[in-house]
Amino acid sequence: MSDEIPPDPGSPRARFGAEMRRLREAAQLSQSAVGRRLGCTQTQISRLESATRTPSKSDAERLDALFGTNGSTYFVDLREHIVARYGGPVWFMSWAQEVEPFALVMRSWDPLLVPGLLQTEAYARAIFKHAPRITPEEIEERVKARMWRKKILEGDNPPLFLTLIDESVLRRNVGGPEVMWEQLTYLLEIAQRPSVSVQLVDRLCLSGMVGPFMIAELPDNQPDAIHAGSAVEGQVSADPSVVTPIWNRYEAIRGWAYPDHMSLKMIEEARQEWT
């Protein structure tokens, strides 16, 4: 079973690959020939065209130079759209484009922060502004993208979202008392939706200290997919050898979780401390 996440044919990354293939074939160039011009291999060109690789800035610039006319920036602009739309690291884009919007059930674990899909705008902004060398414009792009992602929990048929959060997150000062009070208020409100479950995990649980992750159950008998974060680079995979250990870890963490009603009471108590 492949560990590649099937691309969405309508995604910006898929359009990038389709246009690249069309122009290459019109110019009667092989993938190897284009690869030599871009400074990469035939395999990397194939992955760009099949939308299983996210283009780099230099890829886009060289494609515009190769196929464009009169200073065309088609590929650069499309790549910027890809990056701005999802507002995160390159590795995360395949998850945000091809997995998250189609999931039937998502299970989330976060030992450090409120998970992204449940963050308020102010909470997200407070996190992003501490990224090294980030500009004000980049902060706002990432906040906008995070708020856009949250739309998957809205509508008539949202996925079931089951999140586990370390209880210490409630008292981790992100943005100050006002931001924290608003964030915890939002957690209490969204947890009332039938499609959302918020459970706190006892701080003595050590099984989840390796880092945050999400598990997505997909339609049409597709294999489950995961994304797992780290301090350096995250991973998106549908490979059972990767997914199964994440499932096992999730169940180990869930064993330390408080029931929903008790978790909501704990959130309310913590919220009052931020007033």
Quick overview of this protein structure:
This protein is an alpha/beta fold. The chain has eleven helices and six strands. The protein is elongated.
Could you explain how this protein is built, in words?
By secondary structure, the protein is of the alpha/beta class. It folds into 2 domains: 75 residues, lambda repressor-like DNA-binding domains (434 Repressor (Amino-terminal Domain), Orthogonal Bundle); 183 residues, Endonuclease, Chain A. Helices cover 47% and strands 11% of the residues. A 6-stranded mixed β-sheet has the order 3-2-1-4-5-6, sandwiched between helices. Helix 2 crosses helix 3 and helix 9 runs antiparallel to helix 11. The longest helix is centred in the first third of the chain and has 15 residues. InterPro entries: Cro/C1-type_HTH, DUF5753, Lambda_DNA-bd_dom_sf. This is Helix-turn-helix domain-containing protein. It holds the Pfam family DUF5753.
Main attributes of the structure:
6 strands, 275 residues, 434 Repressor (Amino-terminal Domain), Endonuclease, Chain A
- Residue runs with pLDDT of under 50 for 5 or more positions: 1-5
> Fraction of residues in helices?
40-55%
Structural class: alpha/beta
User: Largest beta sheet, briefly?
Assistant: 6 strands, mixed
Going by CATH, the architecture of the largest domain would be 2-Layer Sandwich
Query: In angstroms, what separates the terminal alpha carbons?
Result: 51 Å
State the name of the first-level CATH class of the largest domain: Alpha Beta
Question: What is the CATH topology classification name of the largest domain?
Answer: Endonuclease, Chain A
What order do the helices and strands follow? HHHHHHEHHEHEEEEHH
Mean pLDDT: 87
Number of domains: 2
How would the global form be characterised?
elongated
Give me the count of strands.
Answer: 6
Beta-strand portion reads 5-15%
Major beta sheet, strand line-up: 3-2-1-4-5-6
